[in-house]
Amino acid sequence: MAVFTPVSLDDLETWITQFPLGKAIAVRGISSGIENSNFFLTTERGEYVLTLFEKLSFEQLPFYLNLMRHLAERGVLVPAPVANGRGEILHSLHGKPASIVTRLQGSSQMNPQPVHCAAVGAMLARMHLAAEDFPMQQPNLRGLAWWHETVPVVLPYIPDEAKALLRAEIHTQEAFAASHVYHQLPRGPIHADLFRNNVMFDGERLTGFFDFYFAGCDTWLFDVAVTVNDWCIDLDSGRLDPARLRAMLASYHAVRPFTEAEKAGWRTMLQAAALRFWLSRLYDFYLPREAEMLTPHDPTHFERILRERINHPAPALF
Ligand SMILES: Nc1ncnc2c1ncn2[C@@H]1O[C@H](COP(=O)(O)OP(=O)(O)O)[C@@H](O)[C@H]1O
Ligand SMILES: N[C@@H](CCOP(=O)(O)O)C(=O)O
Predict the structure, then answer these.
(1) Residue 230 alpha carbon, nearest atom of ligand 2
(2) What separation in Å is there between the alpha carbon of 313 and the centre of ligand 1?
(3) H or E segment to which residue 227 belongs
(4) How many whole angstroms separate alpha carbon 125 and alpha carbon 277?
(5) Residues 64 and 118 in one domain
(6) Can you give the pLDDT at residue 88?
(7) Whose CA is nearest to atom 10 of ligand 1?
(8) Same structural domain for residues 247 and 98?
(9) Which residues line ligand 2 (CB under 6 A)?
(10) What region holds the Aminoglycoside phosphotransferase domain (predicted)?
(11) Domain check: are 182 and 275 in the same one?
């Protein structure tokens, strides 16, 4: 939507010399960002994305940037942070934290077919496995603790039917999180927001996952459920699309087979993933941040998905 902090070629002339990228040739603001100031940057060495972080701090960013570097080094298709001569990947520009990452080719596939879902499923499984030995720890900051804190904040704003659903679902999720099955679920760093707008395709070829700024350590199954709830549904009804669902899960399973605990927890996890985004959308809708310039996402989309997952349980996992 905006570039909040402008950057010109003049601003980069000296700053860019710390990187092995040659001279900056062009810098162009990306209008679609909502959190940060993003720029397509052309240098003598190629195409990059420059980001000035408007909200995340110098303390918060190392987890995300190091995770991207760790994944890129292991062949997972994600933007690779560019290190300066001192090996640093987090920098400062105009007083804001800043990074340069490699530019992914292509564009987001907003009308995905089974072939796209299969590619996303396989890359997601590769990502989970590649992140297994990532040494940094950060919880999923939009996980159960945040849901617990946020439910009472949004409850006063929503209609009675929605209140009942929200109360019942948070109880379901608290019981699930305390269960034996839940504690057996494999975990590690996850993307946690792998929607269609956070993946690039060049035709049918997946070129990368990006926007890792909700990443954290949580169950792999939660990541799969978040992804399925966006990629494998009919957008109007929230209903699962059997062909896209099969394609995504089969290709994930072929790389990293689902465990028995994951099979047992699958349906509840699809509900958890719907609850997560219903809650954040309710929060942004009823309690917008000061000077928020954006039209908030529609919360009822995820309320519909949650009802759908409860009333028409998904097919069993492989
Ligand atoms: N590494 C990248 N390669 C190519 N395009 C990118 C890359 N990172 C961001 N973009 C582009 O910038 C846009 C905004 O990025 P995003 O991470 O969603 O910003 P914000 O965090 O500000 O919402 C994306 O929709 C995409 O078009
Ligand atoms: N995917 C979330 C919102 C997060 O925004 P993003 O553009 O950073 O992915 C939603 O749809 O509610």
Answers:
(1) 11
(2) 34
(3) helix 220-231
(4) 22
(5) no
(6) 98
(7) 49
(8) no
(9) 34, 193, 195, 197-198, 211, 277, 280-281, 297
(10) 27-258
(11) yes
Amino acid letter, residue 5: T
Q: Label residue 144 by pLDDT band (50, 70, 90).
A: very high
Question: What atom of ligand 2 comes closest to residue 198's alpha carbon?
Answer: 9
- CB-count burial class (<10 Å; 0-12, 13-18, 19+) for 130: buried
Token representation of residue 277: 């985004």
Q: How many domains does the chain have?
A: 2
Q: What's the mean pLDDT when you consider all of the chain?
A: 96
How many angstroms does the Cα of residue 197 sit away from the middle of ligand 2?
Answer: 8
CA–CA separation, 211 vs 168, rounded Å?
Answer: 32
CA of 211, closest atom in ligand 2: 8
Residue 106 φ/ψ region, left for φ over 0, alpha for ψ in the -120 to 50 degree band, beta for the rest: left
Ligand 2 atom at minimum distance from 297 CA:
12
Nearest CA to ligand 1 atom 15: 33
